[in-house]
Amino acid sequence: MSRWHIRPRPLPRESITSWLIRIAEAKGTKHHSLMKELVPGLEFWTRDSDLVAPPELIEALAVKTGVPLERARCTALSAYEGVLAECISGANQSFMVVPLGVRHRIRKAHGQAFCPQCLAEETAYLPLTWRLRLFPTCTRHGTILMDACLDCGAPYQPHRGGMRLCDRCALDLTTLEARTADPNVLTLQAHNELVLDGCAVAWPYLNGTHPIAFFAMELALFRAIVSRGWGSRVRDALQPSIGTLEFEYRAKTPSIRAMTTISAHNAMRGVERLLRGWPFGLVGLCGEARAWASWIVPEETGVQTPFALRDALDTYLRPGSSNAR
Ligand SMILES: [Zn+2]
Ligand SMILES: [Zn+2]
After folding, report:
1. Proximal ligand: closest to the CA of 161
2. Cβ(213)–Cβ(307) under 8 Å?
3. What is the CA radius of gyration of the chain?
4. Among the bound ligands, the one closest to the CA of 140
5. Cα of 190 to ligand 2 centre, how many Å?
6. Helices (DSSP H) in the chain: which residue ranges?
7. How is 242-299 classified by DSSP, letter by letter?
8. What's the whole-model pTM score?
9. pLDDT tens for each residue of 62-89
10. Are the C-beta atoms of residues 274 and 265 closer than 8 Å to each other?
């Protein structure tokens, strides 16, 4: 297998889908011919390939582009295994990755977010963070990511309409104006991006926490805030400091997976507030509102609560615990 003459390299945190779209564009090749050249017979566009990128494709890409194999591997979401979660795969998909709802070559769900300003830049590309639930903003432009065409409401399908156009109505997505993000959410996300890149957790009073535990805490708090059960008590506790949080979904069943990016951003405002001054941001607000541990982390079978969170809850937020108010 020989190297290509034209061979775009992956950009920072770029997803494999994005890389392949750019390669096809640069070579003036159709997606299926490109795939035929790389791994004949491989189904790529009919599945969520950021999640299940096969090793033989990554190897072929590394050879054809001359990019080191280790770097090529970082274009798949599995590169975040051991950082974002223990395991990231199609079979064991967690709430961390927002699903695309792929059917044939069409995407039914809104799991690929985008930043209009990033797409307007000279080289448009999709970073892997645009697939992740806990990363609803663009930290370069200080905005909330979008997850649908504003004109027709279609999911973003860059493999069909190109990176900059809506595939259904051909709206130029770079003309859209994204909403300004909350500065506190941007601060938390900028920190989280560094952790994804391999830096240690450096959140005040939680420095050095293992990344898996830190992200698991964020997800646990996120779930507590949006929960249809006791979530209203947690949201009441947050109300005086950050106002009323509202959530919208793009499916009939309200699930974290089907939440809009604007709603995920709202939930992250709550997460950031509860993480502030750990553990007293959480303990103070929830203690005051008498929101107890079991409401923040319901005792579900099979769900493990990270120690740092369990410890704070057990110490301060169990009725009758010595420190409970
Ligand atoms: Zn941007
Ligand atoms: Zn459209």
Report:
1. 2
2. yes
3. 21
4. 1
5. 30
6. 16-27, 31-38, 49-52, 55-65, 69-73, 116-119, 158-161, 183-196, 211-226, 231-242, 261-275, 280-288, 293-296, 307-316
7. H------BSSSS--GGGB-HHHHHHHHHHHHHHHTTTTHHHHHHHHHTT--HHHHS--
8. 0.94
9. 999 999 999 999 999 999 999 999 989 7
10. no
